[in-house]
Design brief:
By secondary structure, the chain is mainly alpha-helical. The protein has helices at about 10-20, 30-35, 50-55, 65-75, 80-90, 95-110, 135-145, 150-160, 165-175, 180-185, 210-215, 225-230; strands at about 115-120, 125-130, 165, 190-195, 205-210. Among the domains are: about 60-130, Arc Repressor Mutant, subunit A (Orthogonal Bundle), CATH 1.10.10; about 150-230, Arc Repressor Mutant, subunit A. Helix content is about 50%, strand content about 10%. It is elongated, with a radius of gyration of 30 Å.
Length: about 240
Amino acid sequence: MRLVRYTPEDEMADEVKDVTDSDPDVDLEGRISSEPEDGPVEDSPEDADPALDRQHRCPADNGVDLAVLESLLFATQHPLTAGRLAELMELPTPTPIRKAIKALNAEYAESGRSFRVEQVAGGYQLLTLPEYGEYLRKLHQREADSKLTKAALETLAIIAYKQPTLRAEIESIRGVQCGETIRSLMEKHLVKIAGRAEEPGRPILYGTTKRFLELFGLNSLNELPKPEELSKPQA
């Protein structure tokens, strides 16, 4: 299919044709001369081209369309790496992605938005700011309660800090059997088999998954609170 440029002159010609077809006796000269002569009418804000607005959000130094980048981050349920974003946007290198994300966050901060692009589990994801956490907890309280019990949280915390760790070590810390709890955490994709210990019987070692990092908003295990920080008394 061949695309043809449609100009204002074409639009006027179509209008004249429509008028003459409907009423052959119409006075075209009177109709045309009655048009205002104050020059072209400026487009209203409602007529603005969205593509032009996107171009204003596209930094000239790296060529990343911020609107496209934002749409990808908005649509995904899991963090996207800079390499994956560059691949989706057909960029030769992921370097401009990092600069573009800084530009997006600057826009969000300037306009007072409730979210930012954060690094999570090695990728980037749109996350709500901490000060709005109370409202989100109310929204998702029932779902959260049904997913992780106190026993599951305790077991998950031990695995997170001790990994790779044995079931026997987890049970010695908690003082109770943990087989069912570990199985439940594995079904939720928060815990995985991290290998086998080099000891008689080759018992299974457990560790946390990438899903664990996503759920708790961590980029890596190095961002876990230090034990000494957790032991400090609340002010």
